[in-house]
Amino acid sequence: MIFKIAQETDNTIYMTVLSGLWGTIIGLPLGILLYTTRKNQILECQIASGLLSFFTNLLRSIPFIILLFWIIPFTTFIMLIMTGQGVFLGRQAAIVPLSIGVAPLIARMIENALLDIQTGLIEAARSMGATPLQIIRKVLLPEAMPVIINSLTITLITLNGYVAMVGAIGSGGLGELARYYGLYSYKPAIMNTVLIILILIVFTIQFIGNMIVKRVTHH
Question: How many CB atoms are closer than 10 A to CB 89?
Answer without folding.
Answer: 16
